[in-house]
Amino acid sequence: MIQDLLRELNELDEHPALEAKASTSGDVGDSFFETVCAFSNEPDLGGGRIILGVAKSAEDFFGGYEVLGVSNPDKLLSDIASGCATRFNLPVRVQTITEPYEGKLVIIVEVSELSLSQKPLFFVKQGLPRGAWRRIGSTDQRCTEDDLVVFYGSRQGDSFDLSLIGNATEEDLDVEAIAYYRTLRAKANPLAEELDWNDHDLMESLNAIRKDGDVWRPTLTGMLLFGTRKAYRRELPAVRVDYIRVPGKEWVEDPDKRFIATVDMRGPLLQIVDRAQAAVMDDLPKGFELKEGKVQAETPTLPARVLREAIVNALMHRSYREHRPTQIIRYSNRIEINNAGFSLKNEDHLGEPGSQLRNPNLAAVFHETNTAETKGSGIRVMREQMRANGFSPPTFESDRTNNSFTSRLLLHHFLQAEDMEWLQKMPPGLSDAQRYALIFLREQGAINNQTLRQLTGSDVLTASQDLRKLREFGLVIQKGKGSATYYLPGPTFPASKAAPDGPLTVETVPPNAGHTTLAPGHTTLAPQHLTLTGEHPTLRNSLPENLRSLVESMGRRPGDKIRPVIRELCAWKPLSSGELAQILDRTDNEALRRDHLKPMIDAGELEYTYPDMERHPKQAYRTVAH
Questions:
Q1: d(CA 309, CA 67)
Q2: Tens-digit pLDDT profile for residues 310-340
């Protein structure tokens, strides 16, 4: 068995159902039990396997795995049995197999997925939600309040979209928005009984209002669907849709040249869907739109139904706990729709029947008015429509760290004459999937396993093999590891015909000579100049004298002094998290970002230089002028 599992590890850069842990110290450690918890909880995964005594080789440039062996298997087996029986809210029964390999011992632990009635499994000492873990890609992720929706569903009680808007009353609902709902509902079902009810009874039936003592108040669902514009501004100031037109293929840092046009939309969501769709379609070249009801056009065109479904998904599934707008960003080669709230449904199952609803009451209205597709089918319809009209299927990115979700629609007709001419420069024998990967890489600057699976419909293993072959040809280079693995243009990647945005150029460097900060799942990089270099070691010495003195005065334990210093540094010039970590002598720039930079963004003290893409590889922070 161990030979098969080693081969599987070496063929897959990321694997949701397989985890390797060195365990050379003789202890299994907390991370082992976190993986047990994640395998037990993750819906539809079927559990997974943990291999103890195996780790990535430090000498293998391609990141291969080697057997290190375990030093005290009897103690490890005892610790596993004891921990699985006592650490969690219910005992977990795992299967363990001890197997020799080239004179060393390896332990294979098989974990089964729990039944729905037993989930979520969690650490008793930590409780819920932080004590529960999910398996996202090849990583174990601590659960949030939103994750509990996946496990509990209706058992959890009232969902967040039934929260009362405390300062609002029934008078803050717009009679015109209610009338518009009636029009849509009558079109979907002319015999619907609620159409005969008065407005108050209709709102109560839709959970748009609830009684708070003696006063009827709007719920979050009611305000989102029927709130007046005045009430929206007062109660939900950050809930809006921003349409942003950006020149070229990347976010422009200069605020004076960043946008061609922007449109801010605020109001009842059923009406906002129509306004947002019209804003984007009116801005597209006329040849890009496929009218509703048409099956196929002679020239590939962007189906209006696809854009509408992407907008609806963003508004219906976003997290309204987060105070930030939904953004529709129109680049020269793509449309990106960014909304708050990671996907509750595993990304590998997007497009399959069934939904995990963050806002079930809001979603019910979208479905009953035919604004949204039948439950769980929207993404499948988007993929089918895009393929049928000569486009790449849409790609989706769920980012738990930043609690966001991005849909991307490439405005590029794949494998057209120009593409075929460019592909002639490639080595012979490439598959269609590999050629798709190269064209996507040319358009976006980076690709990962998950994106290639979305483009081609392949599985993890097949996508990994395709990317490995491209790497062997020198067409791509691999960066990151595990779930953070992504691929950039390699030394033999041919240049494209110069476009208005300029050609893609890549400077390659020796292994470990530097790094880039592309987040797991992100597939957008600056197309003009992608340079992989390390940070300058004397960055602190380049500071103005007053700033250098300020930094040096903090000492080794800066405590609450660090944020004022960050404000001063980012007022000097925009700085990345890595640059700030180096200046402040912090060894963990991710912790700096999580503990200080992100809270300062939320508090309005800092702002991103790439606000539409928090994990942009060139992301930097600047102080907000007050």
A1: 48
A2: 999 999 999 998 888 999 999 888 899 999 9
Widest pairwise Cα distance in the chain? 79
pLDDT tens digit sequence for 192-206: 999 999 999 999 999
Apex CA 35: angle with CA 29 and CA 38, to 5°? 145
Alpha-carbon distance 66 to 59, whole Å?
10
The Cβ of residue 537 has, within 10 Å, a number of other Cβ atoms equal to 8
Residues 6+ apart with CB under 8 A from 615: 399, 401, 402, 517, 518, 519, 522
Residue 152 in any domain: the answer is no
CB contact at 8 A, 326 and 338: yes
Nearest to 337 by CA among 244, 439, 221: 244
| Total domain count, the chain | 5
- Is residue 391 located within the same domain as residue 266? yes
Distance of alpha carbon 239 from alpha carbon 233, whole angstroms: 9
SS in 3 state form for 91-160? Answer: CCCCEEEEEEECCEEEEEEEECCCCHHHCCCEECCCCCCCCEEEEECCEEEECCHHHHHHHHHHHHCCCH
Choose among 288, 248, 292, 283: nearest CA to 263: 283
Do 9 and 43 meet the contact criterion of CB atoms below 8 Å apart?
A: no
Q: What is the DSSP string of 166-203?
A: TT--GGGB-HHHHHHHHHHHHHH-TT-GGGGS-HHHHH
The whole domain housing 213 covers 160-235
CATH number, position 429: 1.10.10.10
pTM of the model: 0.65
Tell me, yes or no, whether 227 and 246 share the same domain.
Answer: no
Residue ranges in 18-57 assigned as alpha helix (H)? 29-41
Classify residue 123: in a domain, yes or no. Answer: yes
Alpha-carbon distances of 142 from 52, 121, 409, 434, rounded to whole Å: 22, 12, 30, 34
Residue 447 is encoded by which pair of tokens? 């690709």
